[in-house]
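Before relying on records like the one below, remember that each one covers exactly one chain. Contacts with other chains, cofactors or solvent are not represented anywhere in the record.
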Amino acid sequence: MSDWDTVTVLKKKTPKASTMKTEKAVNAARRQGIAVDTQLKWGAGSNKQHVTTKNTAKLDRETEELKHDTISLDVGKIIQQGRQLKGLSQKELATKINEKPQVITDYEAGKGIPNNVILGKIERVIGTKLRGKDKGKPMLPIGTGKN
């Protein structure tokens, strides 16, 4: 009838990776003495608009052929003159375009990495073109013909 020598082993399913990451599961593993490896992800959960890649520092250390493009000094001078004509400090200009003051400092010193979005914002605030063949000329108000 019954075979007393046969043993049936019931085994639980191994938990999924998502359930193993919960705080409850991690604490239970610590109580049992199991080694727990926790890692903080780089840049996880951040809402940054200007995220730099991990290779940026490596690229900065490399040779001439791999250097970043930078803003030319004449564009930096145009930004500085336009800002001074409007009576703005670097910090005030940065606030108006929602950027850090260091961005304006770098652009004026010719060290900034060109970003058309930022250049467009600066152009609108100081009223001077910074790109193209009309560099340094005042921008015409919208609706007056050529812009």
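The first helix runs from residue 17 to 20.
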